[in-house]
Amino acid sequence: MAVAAAAVAAALLLLLAADGTVAERLPPTCPSDIYCTGPLLHVVQMASIYHDSKTFVDMKMKYSSNETLRIFEDLMKRTEQKPSRLEVELFVNETFEPAGSEFESWTPDDWIQQPRFLENIADPDLRQWGSKLNLLWNSLGRKMKEDVRINHDRYSIIYVPHPVIVPGGRFREFYYWDSYWIIKGLILSEMFQTVKGMLTNFLSIVDMYGFIPNGGRIYYAMRSQPPLLIPMMKSYVDATHDVDFIKSNIHILEKEF
């Protein structure tokens, strides 16, 4: 079996080596000539001005996409299509705002310092650890600025009306699979209002895309994960008995599944 698997892998590598245009024939992850495809994205990412390739594609444009592309074309003409790393960095600083500028400060309104699950932890060290975990909700909450809704075409983030809890670190937006587990933790922490807001966000995204992308950025719009919205909704309804919420959205759940 291992020999056969190795043979298949070798054959695939040979096929890819023989046809270097395979990647070029794949469709872009989204139509954006800034965040998903095109020479601007290629030049900026190949310049490696950031340690993380995600940094640039999470930035907000200061100007419209047409104006941003015009400034980029001027740069390319001025440098004879060979801008230096410093020139690319100056261009990005001139035309984009730092990653994360789409959010405003937000602390969950329904956060509880001592949720009931802590009372069931007998070991004092584990109870203290659980209390510290519960504190993390306050640092992982994100709320989008109203400008994201108004000027959504200047962002890579997908606008949602309610605040979310994100995985953290470089992942500033929601992620579908992660949210399944996050919602389970929020329910344990009795943060039902936050959970309902996140579920409402997902329902609006299904209305928009017909499914929920892997994450909350337009460059994730061509990929998804297993349909977890129904299990999320079940966890919420089991905990709150908010049957009306599921009744009013059952058609969207069916559409997503």
UniProtKB/TrEMBL annotation:
Q: Which GO terms describe its biological process?
A: trehalose catabolic process
Q: Name one Pfam family in it.
A: Trehalase
Task: Quote the PROSITE patterns the UniProt record gives.
Answer: TREHALASE_1 (PS00927)
Please tell me whether the keyword Nucleotide-binding is annotated for this protein: no
Q: Which domain of life is it from?
A: Eukaryota
The family assignment reads: Belongs to the glycosyl hydrolase 37 family.
Enzymatic reactions: alpha,alpha-trehalose + H2O = alpha-D-glucose + beta-D-glucose
Provide the protein name.
Answer: Trehalase
Q: Which is one GO molecular function term here? A: alpha,alpha-trehalase activity
SUPFAM superfamilies listed in its UniProt record: Six-hairpin glycosidases
EC number(s) in its UniProt entry?
A: 3.2.1.28
- The residue range of the signal peptide is 1-23
